[in-house]
C-alpha cells in the first residue's frame, strides 16, 4: 500500500481521534467526580484527577487534580533516619528545602540526578545560554520567571537561594551524584523517579520533580502540567529492593571512587515479587543488554503480563514503540480482548509508533519502513490522543 493511501486513511482517523481526545482546563469544584477508595498500603495520585482539588503553591490558583508535590513533601516529613532520592530532574524548591531541613536535623539524605539536569540553571553563563537548543532556552527563560520572585526582571542571589532547587541542595551540603560518577560521560539516561524514607515508605512516580511535570508551567496559567501519576507505598520489602538499586548507583557517593554503576553497568537481577495484604507487586529494573533474551527485559515482563489479558487492556503512554508488545496486543485483540490506547500526540504518528500498527497503518521514514513492522490485519478504532493545555504532555506509562 502506498504512503499516500496510508495518509488518506490517517485523514479519516484524525476525525475519530478528535472525538476521543480530552480537553483539560482549570475547572470549578462542582465538576468534581467522586473519589475512589484507596488501598491502605498503596495510594495512587494523578495531577489531572477530576476527583480532587487544591491550591497551587507557586501560582496560587485553585484547580482540579492531586497535588503531587504535596504527596512527596508528606512522605519526606515522615523521615526519622534516612531519605534516598533518585530522580532525573529536581527543580521544585520546596522539596529541596524539605530535604535541607531534614539534613540539618541529622537525617541522612542522599540524592542521585541525571547528568544533563544536575547543574543549577542559575550557574549558566550568557554565552552558554546562547548556545542552548531552542527548547532548553525556553526552559531557562521559564526558570528566570519563576526565580524572579518580585518580578523586577532581575535575579538576585537571595531569590536564587530561595527558588533554585539545586542551589538549595548544594548550599545545604546534601551529598549528591549524577550518572557521571562511574567515570563515564553519563549513562545516556538516569530515568528513575523514586524516594525511599526510613527503609519503609516509598514514592514511585512518572513525574520529574519539576513544575511542568507536577502543577504546570509557571508563566502559563492554563497549564496543568504534564499528565502524571504518583504511588505512595508502605512496604519495607519494596524499600529494600529500591535501596539495593540506589546503592548500586551510589557506590561511595561523591567521595571520588568510580564504583557507581549506571545503565548497562548495573548488575542484572530477576524480577522480584512482593506480597502486601491485598496486592502483589512485581519489581524489575532496567536496562538490560541486547545480548540478553528480550523476555528477561522490562518490556518482556510487560508483554508477558499483557498476554494474560482475557477481557480488556487500557493504555496511557507517552511513547509506544515496542513492536513485540504490539504483536502480543494484536494476538489478544484477535482473542476478543478489548484494547484502548491514549498516546501523547507528539509521538503517536511517528514511523516507529505502534499506535499506527493498531490502526492498521504504516508510515515510512526516508522511504524505509521499520524492520519487522506489522500493521494489524484487524485494526481497532479505539486509539486516541489527548488534547491538553498548550505545553502539557501525556507523560503516563500505564497499562491496565
Structure commentary:
With 400 residues, the protein is of the alpha/beta class. Helix 10 (298-306) runs parallel beside helix 11. 30% of the residues lie in helices and 17% in strands. The two termini are 33 Å apart. It has a seven-stranded mixed sheet with strand order 1-9-8-7-4-5-6, with helices on both faces. Keywords: Hydrolase, Lipid degradation, Lipid metabolism. It comes from Anabaena sphaerica FACHB-251. Residues 186-213 form the PLD phosphodiesterase domain. It holds the Pfam family PLDc_2.
Q: Which key phrases capture this entry?
A:
single chain; alpha/beta; 15 strands
Distance between the termini: 33 Å
Helical content class = 25-40%
Structural class: alpha/beta
Count of discrete alpha- or pi-helical segments spanning 4 or more residues: 13
Order of strands in the sheet with most strands: 1-9-8-7-4-5-6
Q: Pick out the low-confidence regions.
A: 1-25
Order of helix and strand elements from N to C terminus: HEEEHEHEHHHHEEEHEHEEHEHEHHEE
- State the major sheet: 7 strands, mixed
Write down the overall mean pLDDT: 93
Large-scale geometry: globular
User: What's the total number of strands?
Assistant: 15
Question: Which value, in Å, is the CA radius of gyration?
Answer: 22 Å
Percent strand equals 15-25%
Amino acid at each position: 500500500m502506498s504512503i499516500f493511501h496510508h495518509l488518506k486513511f490517517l485523514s479519516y482517523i484524525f476525525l475519530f481521534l478528535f472525538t476521543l481526545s480530552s480537553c483539560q482546563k482549570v475547572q470549578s469544584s462542582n465538576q468534581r467526580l467522586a473519589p475512589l477508595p484507596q488501598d491502605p498500603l498503596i495510594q495512587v495520585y494523578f495531577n489531572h484527577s477530576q476527583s480532587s482539588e487544591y491550591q497551587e503553591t507557586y501560582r496560587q490558583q485553585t484547580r482540579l487534580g492531586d497535588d503531587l508535590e504535596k504527596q512527596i513533601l508528606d512522605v519526606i516529613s515522615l523521615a526519622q533516619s534516612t531519605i534516598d532520592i533518585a530522580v532525573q530532574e529536581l527543580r521544585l524548591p520546596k522539596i529541596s528545602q524539605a530535604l535541607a531541613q531534614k539534613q540539618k536535623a541529622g537525617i541522612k539524605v542522599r540524592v542521585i540526578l541525571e547528568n544533563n539536569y544536575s547543574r543549577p540553571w542559575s550557574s549558566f553563563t550568557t554565552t552558554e545560554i546562547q548556545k542552548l537548543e531552542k527548547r532548553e532556552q525556553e526552559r531557562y527563560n521559564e526558570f528566570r520567571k519563576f526565580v524572579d520572585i518580585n518580578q523586577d526582571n532581575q535575579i538576585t542571589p537571595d531569590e536564587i537561594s530561595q527558588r533554585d532547587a539545586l542551589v538549595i541542595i548544594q548550599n545545604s551540603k546534601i551529598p549528591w551524584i549524577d550518572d557521571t560518577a562511574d567515570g563515564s560521560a553519563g549513562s545516556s539516561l538516569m530515568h528513575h523517579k523514586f524516594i525511599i524514607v526510613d527503609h519503609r515508605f516509598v514514592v514511585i512516580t512518572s513525574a520529574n520533580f519539576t513544575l511542568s511535570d507536577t502543577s504546570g508551567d509557571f508563566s502559563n496559567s492554563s497549564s496543568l502540567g504534564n499528565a502524571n501519576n504518583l504511588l505512595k507505598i508502605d512496604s519495607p520489602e519494596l524499600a529494600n529492593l529500591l535501596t539495593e538499586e540506589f546503592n548500586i548507583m551510589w557506590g561511595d557517593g561523591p567521595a571520588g571512587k568510580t564504583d557507581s554503576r549506571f545503565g548497562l553497568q548495573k548488575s542484572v537481577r530477576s524480577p522480584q515479587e512482593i506480597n502486601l495484604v491485598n496486592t502483589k507487586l512485581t519489581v524489575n529494573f532496567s536496562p538490560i543488554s541486547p545480548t540478553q533474551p528480550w523476555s528477561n527485559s522490562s518490556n518482556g515482563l510487560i508483554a508477558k503480563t499483557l498476554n494474560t489479558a482475557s477481557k480488556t487492556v487500557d493504555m496511557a503512554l507517552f511513547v509506544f514503540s515496542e513492536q513485540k508488545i504490539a504483536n502480543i496486543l494484536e494476538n489478544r485483540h484477535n482473542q476478543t480482548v478489548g484494547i484502548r490506547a491514549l498516546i501523547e500526540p507528539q509521538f503517536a504518528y511517528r514511523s516507529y509508533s505502534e499506535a499506527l500498527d493498531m490502526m492498521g497503518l504504516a508510515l515510512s521514514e526516508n522511504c524505509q519502513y521499520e524492520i519487522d513492522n506489522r500493521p494489524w490485519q484487524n485494526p481497532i478504532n479505539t486509539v486516541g490522543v489527548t488534547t491538553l493545555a498548550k505545553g502539557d504532555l501525556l507523560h503516563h506509562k500505564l497499562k491496565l
